Amino acid sequence: GAVVSQHPSRVICKSGTSVKIECRSLDFQATTMFWYRQFPKKSLMLMATSNEGSKATYEQGVEKDKFLINHASLTLSTLTVTSAHPEDSSFYICSARDWGIEAFFGQGTRLTVV
Amino acid sequence: AQKITQTQPGMFVQEKEAVTLDCTYDTSDPSYGLFWYKQPSSGEMIFLIYQGSYDQQNATEGRYSLNFQKARKSANLVISASQLGDSAMYFCAMRERAWRGSTLGRLYFGRGTQLTVWP
Question: Are the beta carbons of A43 and B112 separated by less than 8 Å?
Fold first, then answer.
């Protein structure tokens, strides 16, 4: 199956700093990428949808200025958590689609803000 | 209304037995797709099986099969011959307007079912 690579898998940062998470589709062109957040033992919550070359569409309640999403190419999307605070600590996971049916997920990033 | 409902927070099954994980969905779109994912403790989301709304037959992938009952709007996952490695969280998901080539349609996830396989 298709591969989506997400990096880093774990990151610890200090409160007030910014963290960038990368999501790459390795063997296909991702027309659409999705960013999710998952709290412990909870379901995935969609944060935003991005299409290559256009601005991301954010879900209601998600702060655009805090969670910056850039989808610069058909194989790379980045999520930057700006001025991170402890409440931003969570599991973030991306998924990517090509023109097919399946959505492929990255390995996820566990963010801890101290 | 919830798009995807998984009513079993936890399920237990003995190794080598079969288990059914329930999933019901709600949509008025005639074109949709149903997915099951496995999430082990490592966090990655592993795609298991897909069923399209127009598919005539139930999907099967190895030990996984999807019991698709369109009139009841249910898409239960059946795992046959459970293995210890099957212990994980299982998510049912749906995408509307799921025809191949469409870039529309985000995935809606259920709350998940934690499956525990015991020896």
Answer: yes
